[in-house]
Amino acid sequence: MTLTNQDIVELTAWRRKLHQHPEVSNEEQRTAEEVVNFLENTGPDRVLTSLGGHGVAAVYESGMAGPTVMFRSELDALPIHEVSGAAHSSLVPGKSHMCGHDGHTAILAALGRQLGRRRPARGRVVLMFQPAEETGNGAAGVVADPRFGEIAPDFAFSLHNLPGVPLGEVRLKSGVVNCASRGMRIMLAGKTAHSSMPETGVSPMMAVSQLMPALPALGNGTFADDDFSMVTVTHATMGEAVFGIAPGHAEVWATLRTKRNDLMASLCAAAEALVTSIADKNLLSAQYDYHETFVASVNAPEAVEQLRLALDEERIVHAQDNLPMRASEDFGVFGHNAASAMFFLGAGEQHPALHNPDYDFPDDLIPIGSRVFMRTLRNLLG
């Protein structure tokens, strides 16, 4: 049930190796190979590679009938230049593990090491190393892969480290824990003109200035409300970076966010109607498309109870504070066909925030996270 001191030393060193060689979403080939190589000595009964991209699933069989229990981590890093100053800082300029996916992967590798010493008494365990969480297409790609049907879980569990929460404490609740979101790219087209004669063209300037406040105004309620929705303008560009041309095209990017999946369609419809109306009034044509689509992550009560039992048995402090979160997480896709739950493991109250350039995963969380998962596994499968 526990890691040895040597295990922790080796897992920490391996985590830091992953940290030095980050790969962003949909490019995680080397990271996936590292996982396969690290798990080789644990003797998984089956290893599936290239799942939904560069995903890896290691399967540990008991040989007895029983449920399939999946534990998931993420492989991808972010396009952020690291400034943490750590000795194991990223060696890849402009890319880094600023969300802690390297640490989550080390926690799953710790499970593999323990399963290599003792298989479950019944059922089977799947360690799912998922690609492309940051772009929202990773979990969906894994589930859409025909081979996933061969290892489809009855229970699915995951964790995410959470700065702002005391180190090693857990936040956990049933129901929604992460919002649904999607990125909307709005493209406006008019007609360029010489900057000395802007009246001869059709500029998107007024439309962009109108969209900036109008899009956020589509949001509804406070975050405490069940029907909460939110729109955040994240990027805008217009014309060319020159002084001699009045612009004839523009783009506005916005992130649409809802607490419930069923509200996203109506928020998208409202945003589309707004764009069309403003474009028409300004004699522009408009197009839009969507990117980085995340469904809400919803924790199933029966899966949460399994995690709570494990936390109590391991004497780890847990509460419901800080949940749900506005941020999105694609683990929710696995909950469509399994009893799933994610918990949030405190990275320290003063720890740099996720996606900040000075963030680094706290290595002390590797044995804590693996204890929770291993206790959950043994409670379910023996």
TrEMBL record:
An example molecular function term from Gene Ontology annotations: hydrolase activity
Source organism of the structure: Aminobacter anthyllidis
Keywords assigned by UniProt, alphabetized: Hydrolase, Manganese, Metal-binding
Annotated residues for binding of Mn(2+): 99, 101, 134, 160, 355
Pfam family, one: Peptidase_M20
This protein's record includes keyword GTP-binding: no
Alphabetical list of SUPFAM superfamilies matching this protein: Bacterial exopeptidase dimerisation domain (SSF55031), Zn-dependent exopeptidases (SSF53187)
Cofactor field: Mn(2+)
Name this protein carries in UniProt: Amidohydrolase
